[in-house]
């Protein structure tokens, strides 16, 4: 039984490490997406603030198409960011469950070890008492 518990602890430790790694990767991806969103927002702001006294229809159409393209990219990135956040939330929940299982198993193993130590101490006390009684009987017989 102890081997199976140790194997389970090892498996849970591996899962915990994999979840930490995956969570870190998702967090890095979220940071990259946020940076891309900021860059797009800056580009939109820069292209919107240009004002000139003469309006060239071709340039204005190109500018509006560019802004539309940036808005589409922004929406796609927002969707990706939401997906990353949902995945991050799931990973955190899984990680929390694994950590709870590990703590529960550690407590169980501690209780088992404590009870085994108590049992060994009782057995040693009994052996010692038997030895003392045998010695006492030996001296009384002499």
Automatic annotation (TrEMBL):
Organism: Legionella fallonii LLAP-10
Keywords: Coiled coil
Coiled-coil stretches: 23-101
Domain of life: Bacteria
Entry keyword Coiled coil: yes
Protein name stated in the entry: Flagellar FliJ protein
């Amino acid at each position: 039984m102890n081997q199976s518990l140790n194997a389970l602890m090892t498996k849970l430790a591996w899962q915990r490490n994999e979840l930490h790694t995956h969570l870190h990767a998702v967090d890095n991806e979220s940071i990259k997406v946020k940076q891309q969103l900021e860059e797009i927002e800056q580009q939109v702001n820069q292209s919107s603030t240009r004002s000139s006294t003469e309006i060239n229809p071709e340039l204005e159409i190109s500018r509006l198409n560019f802004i539309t393209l940036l808005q589409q990219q922004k929406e796609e990135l927002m969707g990706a960011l939401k997906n990353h956040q949902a995945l991050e939330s799931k990973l955190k929940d899984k990680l929390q469950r694994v950590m709870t299982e590990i703590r529960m198993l550690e407590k169980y193993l501690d209780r088992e070890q404590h009870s085994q130590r108590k049992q060994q101490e009782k057995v040693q006390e009994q052996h010692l008492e038997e030895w003392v009684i045998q010695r006492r009987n030996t001296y009384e017989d002499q």
